[in-house]
Inverse folding.
């Protein structure tokens, strides 16, 4: 009998920070006995230490380490803060002893102290931050550690004398935070320090804006005493001095971008902006130096300050998620190389053709190779989307990216890592398309072209009108038109409207790569879905039973046996039952790749594959079956079936109202009939390269395609399509290069997402109209040559602020109003 | 009246001081992670006996 202990979860009065993981906490405590470390339900083998239950040895170990080092405050900061140590495979970090590898990984070293930063995907709560920042209490070699919660990164400074990099990594993984070190890290160019100059620019512009405004006050108030003439001059010169860094430092990017645009014969949004900046600056310079006026330098500084704030607003939002991962982020950093009957760890970039590699259960095959020995059962779901394992025999070719599921195999490498099947896909030309970062919206640039022409027309008309009358006034009115028509509001509208939409949606775990994605998404008219992992959930699945009905007692027996096996299918079958505790069990045996057997409650029970139970191969190759045999009598079989995501039918039917919808899967067509009511166009057994070709073909027909996939195998298609959307259960983990990351829980919001994109474009048009109205008012003064600095100083910020408020307000409102509403696309 | 010149210069210097302080903060990395510090402030320096008894 197994004793079940109930304990109350750690309650602490001082704990006020549990809201962060409150939902996971609820899930964790609703069951039976919960592990004291990670909160998972303890199944059969409850390990008890000091009266506290643990679900596995790993969790107990972490608890012991923390307790011994006086770090048990970890358990007070958050309820059940740990990460389950079950199913953790201990990685071999021997490759971290190699000086070359170390040099590539670390950020900085002076010989005695070294700084490095790691990605620790397991960071999830406030207690994690506390523990990791108190790492120095665990090991004296750690000098300082700092956590960046959103990036899930920890930067650690350690003393070379007291701890090696390998020991540090092993320490981290021992307390439950194994760093993710992958091939990409080896390859990275040393990241330049975060771009701080942008903040300097904002600071300079803000500083100058405030001071110039202060110095312009006499002008606003109309102070005009003869003796104050000296002051006016002094203020003017001071203003010029203050505006120089604003124009030539803070505003330099706009001038440069406009110049580059003009050189390529493009009228981008920066052209009219730069035109305005230069017009204001030169006119003000002339007025002040010729003592004929006070100039408009306050408006100029304000304009550049607002523009930079807009840029910051749109940029600030999506810094925490990496959208540009390539295959290197998926590959481990090292593999075990077999040399003279010894296994030595070697980093992947050093693997040569002809090398023999040892791959164990759960490990990724790093390079295309041939199977030398062992029984290979490869999970290619990563590469092709095919969810069934593929059996390979000696001499068969194995492709990089497959995961070995079974015992140890030995491989002979036939291609270098960088030339393998998977990496070639990434190196295809299409991936190079438009890798350059478009930060300026296409829509804005289109409008800018029209705008520039319009401004120049009005300005020249003014000039021609006044020229015969009064030359001075003509130049005056001409520059005034350029000043007041500066499309400040137009330049601000998109960053704020789209930036706000992106920000609001990021809070709901929907992440845009940049604001351009909104424009592309609004235009999409063909939506292509991947199957595995995209419309099916990897978490929920169904077990169908066929055969002689099982009694409650027999089900209980099946539950008991499966709870002893760590095999994923056993675990899935087990989770379909709801029994309090297992029955007595003896003679447990597990034959790898075949099945499990034991004496349960006095009966012989065997569960496993067709070969194991029926002594023949499974004819039904399209499904994964688990056969049940009790006391030598065949009872029936459970069939594993992936579950479709919640609301799939609704999502598809809503999308169908506005776009074509099709399915493009790498998997076999066993679910074809089940899916045909949803998708009119279904394509199965498509290899990654074929998926890419398919998307291209659709585009050639004139369709604007959004591809919705889940992983590496879609990488080509995701990149080729106008909008590549990734559906993921964990945004911080593996997401390939794409335009939009959608948390799986928000899958149902997909149709709304497109609607929101359309609406936000409409909002931008509304703000354009408003900006235009302000411009008409300002222009009516300007063409008459009556534009005073005060009018400019009021009108320009006013139009900007109106545009910003309307853009931000409306874009936030559409999301909150529309969320959860079914009637996104009213029928025709 | 010319005292204003003096005052303006002083006010500019003070403003410049704030600008430099801002530069300092940026250089120090204060604008790189604006989320974690908000969580970090909730840690207690030393756990008390009471906490142990929980």
């Amino acid at each position: 009998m197994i004793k079940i202990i109930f304990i109350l979860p750690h309650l602490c009065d001082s704990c006020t920070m549990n809201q962060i993981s409150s939902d996971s906490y609820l899930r964790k405590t609703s069951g039976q006995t919960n592990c004291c470390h990670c909160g998972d339900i303890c199944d059969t083998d409850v390990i008890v230490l000091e009266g506290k239950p643990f679900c596995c040895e790993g969790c107990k170990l972490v608890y012991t380490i923390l307790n011994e080092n006086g770090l048990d405050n970890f358990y007070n900061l958050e309820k059940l803060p740990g990460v389950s140590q079950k199913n953790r495979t201990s990685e071999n970090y021997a490759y971290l002893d190699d000086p070359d590898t170390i040099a590539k990984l670390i950020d900085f070293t002076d010989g005695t102290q070294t700084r490095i930063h790691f990605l620790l995907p397991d960071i999830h709560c406030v207690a994690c931050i506390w523990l990791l920042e108190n790492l120095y209490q665990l090991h004296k070699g750690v000098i300082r550690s700092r956590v960046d919660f959103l990036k899930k990164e920890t930067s650690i400074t350690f003393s070379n004398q007291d701890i090696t990099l390998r020991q540090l990594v092993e320490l981290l993984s021992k307390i439950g935070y194994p760093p993710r070190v992958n091939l990409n890290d080896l390859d990275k160019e040393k990241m330049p320090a975060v771009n701080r100059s942008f903040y300097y620019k904002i600071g300079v512009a803000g500083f100058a804006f405030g001071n110039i405004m202060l110095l312009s006050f006499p002008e606003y108030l109309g102070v005009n005493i003869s003796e104050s003439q000296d002051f006016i001059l002094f203020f003017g010169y001071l203003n010029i001095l203050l505006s120089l860094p604003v124009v030539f430092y803070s505003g330099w990017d706009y001038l440069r971008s406009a110049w580059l645009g003009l050189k390529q014969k493009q009228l981008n949004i920066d052209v009219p902006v730069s035109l305005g900046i230069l017009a204001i600056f030169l006119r003000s310079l002339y007025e002040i130096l010729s003592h004929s006026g006070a100039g408009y330098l306050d408006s100029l500084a304000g304009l550049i300050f607002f523009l930079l704030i807009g840029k910051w607003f749109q940029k600030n939002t999506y810094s925490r998620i990496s959208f540009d991962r390539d295959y290197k982020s998926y590959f481990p950093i090292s593999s075990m190389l077999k040399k003279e009957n010894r296994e030595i760890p070697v980093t992947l970039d050093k693997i040569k053709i002809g090398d023999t590699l040892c791959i164990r259960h759960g490990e990724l095959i790093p390079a295309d190779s041939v199977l030398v020995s062992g029984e290979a059962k490869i999970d290619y779901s990563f590469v092709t989307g095919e969810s069934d394992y593929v059996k390979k025999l000696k001499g068969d070719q194995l492709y990089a990216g497959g995961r070995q599921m079974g015992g140890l195999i030995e491989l002979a490498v036939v291609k270098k890592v960088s030339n393998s099947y998977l990496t070639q896909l990434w190196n295809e030309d299409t991936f190079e398309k438009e890798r350059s970062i478009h930060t300026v919206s296409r829509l804005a640039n289109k409008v800018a072209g029209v705008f520039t022409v319009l401004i120049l027309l009005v300005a020249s008309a003014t000039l021609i009108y006044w020229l015969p009358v009064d030359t001075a006034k003509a130049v005056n009115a001409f520059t005034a038109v350029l000043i007041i028509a500066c499309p400040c509001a137009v330049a601000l509208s998109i960053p704020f409207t789209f930036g706000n939409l992106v920000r609001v949606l990021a809070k709901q775990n929907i992440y845009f790569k940049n604001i351009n994605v909104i424009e592309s998404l609004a235009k999409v008219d063909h939506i292509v879905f991947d199957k595995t992992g995209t419309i099916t959930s990897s978490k929920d699945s169904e077990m169908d039973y066929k055969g002689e009905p099982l009694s409650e007692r027999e089900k209980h027996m099946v539950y008991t046996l499966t709870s002893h096996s760590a095999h994923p299918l056993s675990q899935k079958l087990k989770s379909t039952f709801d029994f309090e505790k297992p029955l007595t069990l003896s003679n447990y045996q597990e034959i790898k790749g075949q099945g499990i057997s034991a004496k349960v409650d006095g009966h012989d029970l065997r569960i496993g594959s067709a070969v194991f139970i029926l002594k023949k191969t499974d004819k039904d190759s399209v499904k994964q079956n688990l056969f049940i045999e009790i006391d030598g009598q065949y009872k029936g079989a459970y069939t594993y079936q992936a579950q479709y995501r919640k609301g799939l039918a609704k999502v598809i039917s809503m999308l169908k109202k506005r776009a074509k919808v099709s399915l493009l899967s790498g998997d076999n067509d066993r679910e074809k009939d089940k899916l045909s009511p949803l998708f009119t166009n279904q394509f199965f057994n498509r290899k990654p390269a074929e998926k890419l070709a398919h998307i291209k073909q659709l585009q050639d027909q004139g369709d604007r395609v959004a591809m919705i996939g889940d992983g590496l195998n879609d990488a080509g298609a995701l990149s080729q399509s106008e909008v590549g959307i990734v559906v993921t259960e964990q945004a911080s983990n593996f997401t390939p290069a794409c335009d939009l990351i959608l948390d799986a829980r928000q899958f149902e919001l997909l149709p709304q997402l497109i609607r929101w994109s359309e609406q936000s474009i409409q909002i931008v048009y509304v703000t354009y109209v408003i900006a235009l109205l302000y411009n008409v008012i300002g222009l009516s003064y300007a063409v008459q040559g009556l534009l005073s600095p005060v009018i400019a100083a009021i009108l320009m910020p006013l139009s900007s602020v109106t545009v910003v408020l309307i853009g931000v307000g409306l874009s936030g409102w559409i999301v909150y109003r529309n969320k959860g509403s079914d009637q996104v696309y009213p029928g025709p | 009246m010319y005292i204003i010149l003096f005052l303006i210069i002083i006010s500019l210097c003070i403003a410049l001081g704030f600008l430099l302080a801002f530069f300092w903060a940026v250089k120090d990395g204060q604008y790189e992670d604006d989320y974690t510090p908000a969580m970090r402030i909730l840690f207690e320096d030393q756990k008390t006996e009471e906490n142990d008894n929980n």
